[in-house]
């Protein structure tokens, strides 16, 4: 055996635990001088061209551009920004001037001489009690040799000078604090310690060196949680610790690096940075250099600041962007990984011997590697000829052990038996016909100790490793379909049943004592998502899980009646599922072509892990997964194995928080955009105007590591009945929602698949447009009613006036004209007595005309008299006319109106007149053209209207030829009444009028 030099734990902290944020990701300016985080977990970056707020998705820039709504007077931000969460104020100094920014209103307040500030602001510090301290100097304005440093404290909106120290030419200075509330001012003259009241407690000089021809005692310091002081000598370099009581120091890191700052994480590790170097000191005092990892990830020339956010992420600000480093140790242990970037030792079959040694096939090296329980890594050399060894490279990827786990069996040029102690290999040539030399060849050990292999049903072989006897269970059986090209074998929990995954025929359920019990493919019912099967296993309930090439994960119920598919749309990291294992809780760990995932079949929630979580590579390999006797899981990929215990990985997974960030839209009425920043405005119900053309809601998950892999889903209650997946999009827009009340729900997962601990919700009220509101509709109805009432009232007044006019006209005609005509008729009759025979004829004619005029006038007066407008009045007038005209001629008549049920019903003047004149014309025709002795008049109401019939019993006078317009006038009047009139001459003369209404 010879040692194979591979790297399996080069980094305690995996380099892929490092993420970056640069201008390529939207960062407005590459050089970041300082950082802070507000109470909403928004990140703030100070740059030479302004302030930047970052919510994980969007950047908000404050600068001196007057067209920018977020304007600040000076934008060259100094080395520190401080946030007062209680007042929600950010303090910063820019261009040597001090400002604060109200994070609620974006109002900027400038502090100057009127606030007690002396000179230029050079350093800024906020202590644990919330006090704001600054260090200023008047070097630019003081006389030569008279310049001073001023330590000032903000008290009641005024800065008071607490200490004054002469400023020498170099002007080096920093302002820091220890864990007891003391202020440490580091100057060229040494270090000065002040209490919270600004009283000088101590001065000390930790290092002396020459700075540009001057002697300087300037030293940078850092205090950990235990108030242990670390200082960075500008002369000896490296890192020192200081015992303050005796001012004794210890050089704990002497590597020639000039350090500037330190920060302690939640694991009590301390991170130190120099110009380009980053080191971590663990709790045992052991240092780890991360410099090369940073430089291999992003080019930079200076580290400006270190910062740890609320989610324990270490931010490293540089002159070319930001590093984001997960502080936690890698979740996975790498085994057999090479130092090469990208593909290294590509791994296939994994197995374990009786001693607990783990073996795996390195396909790229065509070697079997192993690692003992004690951690020794080596290569198992196979005693094979070159040809057999070459063939085994891509063919021998499945391995099965005998009962004592001393020999491994695989398929290559034949069935190969490998002695795990010596590497001695025996080849069984008789099985060549059952091996596909151009493809992978699965082999498994069954519960009865026999090995199963073969590339078709007819060539399946059961091999006994102890006796070396074999059988072919389907050799002489009549197989309807001899399926071939097998990819995976799995013994069912049902005795005698084997699951066989194929390349193109789906999944086969094979009874070794019979044949194919069932087949599941894209063409069966139920159907699977793809026919190319890469992995199969059963859970404790007898359900079968199927990994496919390109079709995701398939679930087959124990009864074989239900298949469910899980893909990337459901949270699976990739649709190529190459392997999976069940943990003790029957949850699944699934390897894919793009990461590893944890899947809970009960909740159907996926939690994904990628290279940035410590995996040796994001792409995993088919046939490369294994659970050892100690409960360790192994998944092989394109660079070694990833070893882990499921419970340990899950313990380190933290659920992220979420919050709404912005509400915006466009109002078509005002033709303006609107926007609400929820970091500044209290979140409440969103009220949407009916004129809002659209509105958009933004949110964020301030889990900043690999946040481009955060995913979200939304559901708008009241409008949607299911969740909609949005991928990495952190906003949603709605156009013209119907009026009503809704609730927008948002849930998310971080890059690992950790689901947000709670669903983010916000009520939304879409207001109804005014003309659809109840009060407007009520007002509109009232307005219509008022208009209708006004019209009715107007028409009523008009009708009343008309009735009065008709009454007056009828009275005047009856009283005045009637009297004149009656008088004329009487005078004519008196004159007739004494007149000559010749004049009598003329006078008689005048008298007749007068009486006829009186009759016509009576009819006219009656028709327009509003006091005579009922059906009963019409019938009475018909009686009067019949008596006047028929009885003097000895013609009897009968008027039947028995079907009239409402004789008091009023008729319009025109209707009453038209009916009466038709009746009168009919009576007149009887007198003129018939020799009748009896006339029958009937008014009959039917469901269709009213039938008006006038019928005599006489015969038509043939000698009479009418030149009048009586019949045509009746037809015209019937048309005006919208009725039908018919004249009958058989058995007397008859008039039949059909009216469309009842009388």
Form type: elongated
Number of helices: 8
In this structure, how is the largest beta sheet organized?
5 strands, mixed
The average pLDDT is: 88
Q: Count the E strands.
A: 72
How far do the termini sit from each other?
125 Å
Rg estimate, integer Å: 53 Å
- Please list the strands of the largest sheet in the order they lie side by side: 61-67-66-63-64
Structural class by SSE content: alpha+beta
Assembly classification: single chain
Strand content: 35-45%
The level of helicity is 10-25%
Low-confidence stretches: 1-15, 959-963
Describe the fold and architecture.
With 999 residues, the chain is an alpha+beta fold. 16% of the residues lie in helices and 38% in strands. The protein has eight helices and 72 strands. The strands form 18 sheets. A five-stranded mixed sheet has the order 61-67-66-63-64, with no helix packed on it. Strands 68-69-70-72-71 form a five-stranded mixed sheet, with helices on one face. The chain has a four-stranded antiparallel sheet with strand order 1-30-29-28, covered by helices on one side. The model is unreliable at 1-15 and 959-963 (pLDDT under 50).
């Amino acid at each position: 055996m010879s040692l194979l030099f591979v790297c399996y734990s080069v980094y305690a902290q995996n380099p892929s635990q490092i993420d970056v944020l640069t201008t390529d990701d939207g960062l407005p300016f590459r050089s970041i001088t300082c950082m802070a985080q507000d109470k909403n977990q928004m990140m703030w970056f100070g740059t030479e061209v302004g302030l930047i707020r970052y919510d994980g998705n969007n950047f908000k820039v404050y600068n001196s551009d007057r067209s920018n709504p977020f304007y600040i007077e000076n934008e060259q931000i100094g080395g520190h920004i401080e946030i007062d969460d209680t007042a929600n104020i950010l303090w910063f100094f820019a261009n040597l001037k001090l400002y604060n920014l109200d994070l609620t209103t974006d109002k900027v307040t400038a502090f100057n001489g009127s606030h007690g500030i002396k000179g230029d602001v050079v350093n800024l510090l906020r202590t644990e009690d919330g006090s704001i301290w600054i260090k200023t100097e008047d070097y630019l304005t003081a006389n030569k040799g008279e310049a001073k440093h001023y330590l000032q404290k903000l008290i009641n909106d005024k800065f008071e000078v607490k200490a004054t120290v002469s400023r020498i030419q170099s002007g080096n200075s920093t302002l820091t604090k220890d864990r007891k509330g003391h202020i440490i001012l580091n100057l060229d003259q040494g270090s000065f310690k002040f209490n919270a009241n600004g009283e000088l407690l101590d001065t000390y000089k930790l290092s002396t060196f020459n700075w540009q021809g001057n002697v300087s005692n300037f030293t940078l310091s850092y205090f950990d949680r235990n108030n242990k002081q670390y200082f960075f000598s500008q002369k000896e370099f490296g890192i020192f610790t200081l015992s303050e009581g005796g001012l004794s120091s210890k050089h704990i890191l002497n590597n020639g690096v000039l350090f500037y700052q330190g920060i302690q994480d939640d694991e009590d590790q301390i991170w130190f940075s120099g110009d380009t170097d980053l080191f971590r000191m663990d709790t045992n005092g052991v240092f780890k250099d991360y410099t090369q990892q940073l430089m291999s990830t992003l080019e930079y020339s200076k580290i400006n600041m270190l910062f740890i956010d609320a989610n324990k992420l270490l931010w490293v600000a540089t002159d070319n962007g930001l590093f984001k480093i997960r502080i936690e140790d890698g979740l996975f242990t790498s085994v057999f990984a090479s130092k090469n970037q990208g593909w290294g030792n590509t791994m296939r079959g994994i197995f374990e011997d009786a001693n607990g040694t783990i073996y795996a096939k390195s396909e790229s090296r065509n070697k079997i590697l192993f690692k003992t329980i004690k951690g020794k890594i080596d290569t198992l050399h196979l005693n094979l000829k070159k040809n057999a060894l070459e063939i085994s490279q891509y063919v021998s990827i499945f391995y099965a052990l005998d009962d004592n786990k001393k020999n491994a069996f695989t398929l290559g040029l034949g069935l190969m038996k490998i002695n795990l102690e010596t590497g001695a290999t025996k080849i069984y040539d008789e099985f060549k016909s059952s091996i596909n030399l151009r493809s992978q060849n699965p082999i498994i050990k069954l519960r009865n100790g026999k090995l199963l292999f073969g590339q078709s049903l007819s060539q399946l072989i059961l091999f006994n490793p102890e006796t070396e006897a074999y059988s072919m269970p389907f050799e002489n059986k009549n197989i309807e379909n001899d399926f071939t090209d097998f990819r995976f074998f799995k013994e069912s929990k049902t005795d005698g049943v084997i699951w066989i995954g194929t390349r193109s025929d789906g999944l086969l359920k094979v009874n070794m004592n019979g044949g194919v019990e069932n087949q599941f493919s894209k063409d069966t019912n139920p159907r699977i998502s793809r026919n190319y099967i890469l992995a199969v296993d059963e859970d404790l309930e007898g359900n079968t899980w199927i990994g496919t090439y390109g079709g995701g994960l398939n679930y087959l119920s124990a009864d074989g009646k239900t298949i469910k598919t899980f893909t990337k749309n459901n949270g699976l990291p990739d649709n190529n599922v190459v392997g999976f294992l069940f943990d003790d809780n029957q949850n699944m760990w699934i390897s894919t072509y793009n990461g590893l995932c944890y899947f809970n079949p009960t909740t159907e929630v996926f939690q994904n892990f990628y290279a940035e979580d410590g995996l040796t590579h994001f792409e995993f390999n088919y046939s490369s997964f294994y659970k050892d006797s100690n409960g360790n899981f192994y998944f092989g990929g394109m660079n070694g194995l990833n070893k882990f215990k499921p419970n340990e990985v899950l313990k380190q997974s933290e659920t992220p928080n979420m919050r709404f960030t912005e509400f915006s839209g466009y109002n078509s009425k005002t033709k303006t955009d609107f926007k609400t920043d929820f970091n500044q405005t209290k979140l409440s119900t969103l009220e949407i105007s009916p004129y809002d053309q659209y509105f958009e809601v933004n949110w964020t998950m301030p889990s900043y590591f690999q946040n481009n892999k955060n995913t979200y889903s939304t559901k708008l209650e009241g409008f949607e009945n299911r969740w909609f997946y949005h991928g990495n999009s952190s906003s949603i827009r709605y156009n013209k929602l119907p009026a009503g009340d809704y609730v927008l729900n948002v849930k998310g997962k971080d890059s690992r698949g950790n689901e947000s601990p709670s669903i983010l919700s916000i009520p939304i009220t879409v207001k109804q447009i005014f003309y659809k509101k109840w009060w407007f509709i009520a007002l509109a109805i009232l307005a219509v009613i008022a208009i209708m009432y006004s019209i009715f009232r107007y028409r009523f007044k008009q009708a009343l006036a008309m009735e009065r006019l008709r009454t007056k006209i009828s009275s005047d005609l009856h009283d005045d004209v009637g009297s004149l005509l009656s008088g004329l008729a009487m005078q004519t009759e008196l004159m007739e007595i004494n007149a000559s025979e010749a004049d009598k004829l003329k006078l008689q004619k005048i008298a007749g005309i007068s009486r006829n005029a009186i009759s016509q006038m009576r009819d006219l007066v009656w028709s327009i008299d509003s006091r005579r407008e009922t059906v009963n009045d019409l019938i009475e007038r018909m009686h009067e006319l019949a008596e006047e005209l028929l009885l003097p001629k000895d013609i009897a008549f009968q008027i039947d109106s028995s079907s009239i049920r409402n004789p008091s019903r009023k008729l319009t003047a025109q209707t009453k007149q038209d009916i009466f004149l038709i009746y009168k014309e009919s009576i007149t025709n009887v007198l003129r053209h018939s020799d009748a002795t009896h006339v029958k008049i009937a008014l009959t109401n039917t469901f269709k209207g009213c039938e008006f019939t006038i019928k005599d019993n006489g015969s038509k006078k043939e000698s009479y030829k009418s030149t009048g317009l009586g019949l045509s006038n009746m037809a015209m009047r019937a048309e005006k009444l919208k009725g039908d009139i018919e004249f009958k001459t058989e058995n007397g003369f008859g008039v039949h009028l059909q009216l469309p209404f009842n009388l």
